Structures are given as structure tokens and as C-alpha cells.
């Protein structure tokens, strides 16, 4: 196979029947999220670069190493969205958000990160995400988490654990950073090179490091909330108590910080114990944030999460089918002689009854047409020749039994319903 036909590593083509599974995830999202008042939003897949840099944070892995940034013909710096929140917040701010007003939206679509491709780690991946924007209180956080759990439940996914922590508020984080820096400074020689840099630039990012050597050190780091003050701890206690009241199960993860800088207060991750996922076991991540938007000094508060669709499907056991396939065909419309035009009209009529039809558009022998009907997996073949067309009849062949009847076209709907089951 020519290399140039292959999709770029870390991206893939999607075919039926897998695409139907993607649609199922999207439909379930629409159903569950609308119970909580979330409406769908669709924003552009690229934005001005500053929309992401300002909100995600200069020191994050995503901004430093993973963004697909390019200059357009007008010399503007644009970036393919690496995540959904920044663009959604930009759109909400652009449409106008009154003080104290809350907007709830969900989105689905592709995100782009220049990561090293691996199972469950792609360069173009897809997320289903939600944002409740404009207000800040612990009830929203707990409700948002409960909604994520309800969604997974609706999909039939169990074996999912909810990991919960707080990033605290920025005012308390300055002092907390010093506590964290004091701990890591003592063991800095054992940290990887990246983490040694992080120690000076943004100590919290060390907690995200996946290097084995750093992991052991991170395990013994102070719990984030132990370094924070009253405001952060009280807010978190309320989120936890609300989750308890709603019966949502969680595990405290005292060193979870998540990879983006805009989070404050609640952060959470949904991890799957499903074997299919292997190392990339995070199905979703989210939390409360304050996002800075270009040209505005006011930060916008909100809470949300994003689920990775590829990983959801892996956890559900849906495997990729790199094989071109079409929608299921129930009826193959064959024609002979000069009856092709009439056959195409009849096919249209059959479709109006909700039946999937492939009408043969090439001139083929009857034998070749029956072979094609078999290849499509059609249950029935309709055959229209000049005589049938003149008499307003049609021949219907049951492909499995080989049984064949000629009947008036006026009776065809009832006959097909019998063969195909209710339609
Ligand atoms: P994040 O904002 O990085 O936590 O992403 C939220 C979710 O999106 C993750 O939990 C994954 O399910 C999914 N995700 C993030 N990055 C990738 C990727 N490179 N490939 C596939 N899924 C991803």
C-alpha cells in the first residue's frame, strides 16, 4: 500500500460500523447533558494562538510542546485547538455574558496535539466536553461531576473511578507553591531534567510528570490542600459533602493537579480499569477554572470536563475497522433492457418506505447483478425488465431462499415488509 495513502501517524480514518458507535456516544451526550440544561455549541477548530496560550498557560506541556501552530497568509498566528474550553469560553464571552449569568454548553469534535502517537494517544483525537460558565460555587462542581458519572452509566461503562482533588485558589497558591518548592528542592537531584526546570518556573507541573524516577518522589510530596488555606479547603469540603449527599463515589487524589494552568478549586479525573486502555487509562478530566481571554482583564469562571471519545470506545470494546464499508443495504434494485430509469424511480419509492436500497447504475448481466446483490448482503433483490415495467409489476427475489415472485408494484410495500420485518 502506498505510504502516501496512509493517514498521518496519530490520526485515522473512521468507517462504519465504528462511526455508528461514535454517533451513539454523541447522542447519549445530547440526551444526558440536556437533562441538566446543557445545549450544544460548535466552535471553529482553529483560533488565534493567544486564545490558547493565555488560558491554558505558557508553562504547560500542551502550550510548550504540543500545539499545532501556524501562520496564515495574513501573517496571523493560528492554532488548531488542543482542547475545547478556551474556544468555548471565547465564544461565550463574544456572544455576551452578563455578570452572574450562567451558560451551559456541551461540544463534541476533534482536538489536535503533537504528541508521540501510542495506543490511546493520538494527534487528532475527539472529545465530548461540557462547560458551565459564569458562576463559581461548589454545587455546580458536584452536579457537573454527577452528570459525568450519569453519562458513563448511560453508556454502560463500569470499572470507572473518580479521582478528586483541589488546585486551591490563586491567592493561596503563592504560599502553597513555596511549600511545594521546599519539598522538591530537597530532592531536586533525583528529578528529571524537565522537572528541575519546573522547580523554578512552575512547581505544580512536577506533580504531572510521568517519569518513573519522579513518580516515587511525587508520591511523598505534600497533599495540595494541606498547603492551601481556608477558602480552598472550605470550597472543597462542600464539593465533597455534596457528592456524598448525591451518592457519587470518589477517591481522594491529594496530588492530582491536571495538566493545564487555568484550573482552580476542584479538579477531577475519571480513570478506567478496563484492560483495553492500558497505560492511557484516563477517560476524562475536568474541573473548575478561571480563564483569561485576550483583550480582557476579567477572567471568566466555569466548571467542565472533557471525555476522550477514542478512549471511551476502547473501554467499551469497540475496535477500529480500517476497512471501507457502506451503510447496510436491505434491497438491491436490478434492471434489464431499458428499464433502468423506471428502476431508479421505483428505488426512490422503496426508500420513501424507510428501506435501504442500492440501485445498480451499471449495465450488467443478471448473473452479475445477483452476485452484486449477494456482495451487498441484501435480503431481497428487485428485478425490473421491460415487461415488468410496462405491466407495473416487479420481480422480488429472496436472496437467502432464492424464492422469486412477480407481483404488482402496488403490493410491493407489504411484501417487502414481510420479508424484511417491520419497516
Ligand atoms: P486532558 O484535557 O488532556 O485531560 O484530556 C481529557 C481527555 O481527553 C483525556 O482524559 C483523554 O481521554 C482524552 N485525550 C487527551 N489527549 C488525548 C490524546 N492525545 N489522544 C487521545 N485522547 C486524548
Note the topology:
Blueprint: H1 18-34, E1 39-40, E2 46-48, H2 49-56, H3 61-66, E3 68-71, E4 77-80, H4 85-95, E5 103-112, E6 124-133, H5 138-155, E7 160-166, H6 170-186, H7 193-201, H8 212-219, H9 224-227, H10 230-246, E8 251-252, E9 263-272, E10 282-291, E11 300-308, H11 309-315, E12 331-335, H12 340-352, E13 357-359, H13 366-376, E14 380-384, H14 386-391, E15 393-398, E16 404-408, H15 412-420
Parallel strand pairs: 1-5, 7-8, 12-13, 12-14
Antiparallel strand pairs: 2-4, 3-4, 5-6, 6-11, 7-9, 9-10, 10-11, 14-15, 15-16
The site of adenosine monophosphate has 17 residues, from strand 6, strand 10, strand 11 and helix 11.
Q: Can you describe this structure?
A:
- The protein is of the alpha+beta class and 423 residues long.
- The chain is 38% helix and 22% strand.
- It has helices at 18-34, 49-56, 61-66, 85-95, 138-155, 170-186, 193-201, 212-219, 224-227, 230-246, 309-315, 340-352, 366-376, 386-391, 412-420, and strands at 39-40, 46-48, 68-71, 77-80, 103-112, 124-133, 160-166, 251-252, 263-272, 282-291, 300-308, 331-335, 357-359, 380-384, 393-398, 404-408.
- The strands form three sheets. It has an eight-stranded mixed beta sheet with strand order 1-5-6-11-10-9-7-8, with helices on both faces. A five-stranded mixed beta sheet has the order 13-12-14-15-16, with helices on both faces.
- Helix 1 runs antiparallel to helix 5 and helix 5 packs parallel to helix 10.
- The protein is elongated, with a radius of gyration of 28 Å.
- Bound molecules: adenosine monophosphate.
- The site of adenosine monophosphate has 17 residues, from strand 6, strand 10, strand 11 and helix 11.
Amino acid at each position: 500500500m502506498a505510504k502516501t495513502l496512509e493517514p498521518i501517524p496519530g490520526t485515522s480514518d473512521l468507517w462504519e460500523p465504528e462511526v455508528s458507535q461514535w454517533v451513539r456516544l454523541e447522542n447519549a451526550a445530547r440526551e444526558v447533558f440536556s437533562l441538566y440544561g446543557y445545549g450544544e455549541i460548535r466552535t471553529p477548530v482553529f483560533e488565534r494562538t493567544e486564545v490558547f496560550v493565555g488560558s491554558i498557560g505558557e508553562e504547560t506541556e500542551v502550550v510548550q510542546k504540543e500545539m499545532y501552530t501556524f501562520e496564515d497568509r495574513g501573517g496571523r498566528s493560528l492554532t488548531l485547538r488542543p482542547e475545547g474550553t478556551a474556544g468555548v469560553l471565547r465564544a461565550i464571552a463574544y456572544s455576551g455574558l452578563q455578570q452572574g449569568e450562567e451558560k451551559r454548553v456541551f461540544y463534541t469534535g476533534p482536538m489536535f496535539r503533537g504528541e508521540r502517537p501510542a495506543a490511546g494517544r493520538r494527534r487528532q483525537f475527539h472529545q465530548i466536553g461540557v462547560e458551565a460558565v459564569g458562576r463559581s460555587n461548589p454545587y455546580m462542581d458536584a452536579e457537573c461531576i454527577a452528570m459525568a458519572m450519569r453519562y458513563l452509566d448511560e453508556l454502560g461503562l463500569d470499572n470507572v473511578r473518580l479521582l478528586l482533588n483541589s488546585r486551591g485558589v490563586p491567592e493561596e497558591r503563592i504560599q502553597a507553591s513555596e511549600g511545594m518548592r521546599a519539598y522538591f528542592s530537597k530532592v531536586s537531584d533525583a528529578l528529571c531534567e524537565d522537572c528541575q526546570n519546573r522547580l523554578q518556573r512552575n512547581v505544580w507541573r512536577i506533580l504531572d510528570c510521568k517519569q518513573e524516577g519522579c513518580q516515587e518522589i511525587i508520591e511523598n510530596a505534600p497533599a495540595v490542600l494541606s498547603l492551601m488555606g481556608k477558602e480552598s479547603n472550605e470550597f472543597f469540603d462542600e464539593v465533597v459533602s455534596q457528592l456524598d449527599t448525591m451518592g457519587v463515589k470518589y477517591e481522594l487524589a491529594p496530588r492530582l493537579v491536571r495538566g493545564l494552568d487555568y484550573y482552580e478549586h476542584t479538579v477531577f479525573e475519571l480513570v478506567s480499569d478496563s484492560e483495553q486502555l492500558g497505560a492511557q487509562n484516563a477517560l476524562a478530566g475536568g474541573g473548575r477554572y478561571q480563564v483569561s481571554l485576550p483583550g480582557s482583564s476579567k477572567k471568566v469562571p466555569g466548571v467542565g470536563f472533557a471525555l476522550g471519545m477514542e478512549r471511551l470506545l476502547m473501554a467499551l470494546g469497540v475496535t477500529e475497522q480500517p476497512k471501507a464499508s457502506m451503510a447496510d443495504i436491505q434491497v438491491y434494485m436490478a434492471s434489464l433492457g431499458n428499464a433502468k430509469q423506471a428502476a431508479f424511480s421505483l428505488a426512490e419509492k422503496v426508500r420513501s418506505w424507510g428501506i435501504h436500497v442500492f440501485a445498480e447504475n451499471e449495465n450488467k448481466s443478471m448473473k452479475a447483478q445477483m452476485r452484486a446483490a449477494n456482495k451487498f448482503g441484501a435480503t431481497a433483490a428487485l428485478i425490473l425488465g421491460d415487461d415488468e415495467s410496462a405491466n407495473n409489476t416487479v420481480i422480488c427475489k429472496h436472496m437467502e431462499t432464492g424464492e422469486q415472485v412477480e407481483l404488482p408494484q402496488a403490493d410491493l410495500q407489504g411484501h417487502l415488509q414481510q420479508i424484511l420485518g417491520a419497516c
